[in-house]
Write a structure and sequence with these properties.
- Helix content is about 45%, strand content about 10%.
- The chain is an alpha/beta fold.
- Helix 7 links the parallel strand 1 (about 130-135) and strand 2.
Length: about 280
Amino acid sequence: MIEPGKLDHLEPGQKRRKIALTFGALERDIDGIPEKGNEYDYKSITRPDYIKRLIEIILKDPEMSDQARAQLEGVLKETPFNEKRACNLARNIMLALIGTFPAEWDLIIAPHAAPVDENGIVKQRNFFKDVYVYAEDIRSPFNLGSIFRSAEAMGAEKVFVSPMCVPPEHPKAIRSGMGCIETLGWEKMNLEELEAFAGSKQIPIFVLETGGTPINEFQFPDKGICIIGSEELGVSPEALDKAKYGRVTIPMKGLKASLNVGVAWGILMEKWMEELEKKSE
């Protein structure tokens, strides 16, 4: 949990995100299932008073609607004070100000196994070492954000982006990435630099593209870089030439036989993770 006084000095966007996370953590603490290392343990202030302090802070947000403000002021006056209802209402109001949906944000505030600092922020990710994805010329920021999300969720170490890729800092990429772009390391590289990087670490490069080995038959490497191509053109001939380890394909039955690039990457990463987990056992 973060000390309320510290929140007042944060910039608005960061303040809203941290408060939304804190209300989520408080809800789990109220339910008796707190995230390890993020249990409520302030001795100087009771949990109900802590919740009220956070609500008083967000009531000062100039972007809050009059209706939301009235709801929060109402919950503060309730006797007895309902901690769970107050946290849930305040969190949803914060999410509306952030511009996302509660169901999506829940994937971010779910309990983490990784170590956390005194504010409940994850200090270290749990990932598969030397497992990477290279996003080649992805033009949609929403698709790029989705790629980061799947990469982070499934344990990739890092994301590489091509020079012609939409910047990961794009606001729409950040929004669809749901915090994963800030959490996951990334680096811009051209194909020659990528090949040199792979060679220095002695890890293979392969591609996700049509016309390759079906995903259920593909022998995923213990370490490697998977190249995924643009929405319209797929992987470039130059990238195919770098992929000495091979080409993996997702078989489809539909008439369109078409998958969103972010969805396709998520399917592949889940399968790769499954194989890595089996080997680790």
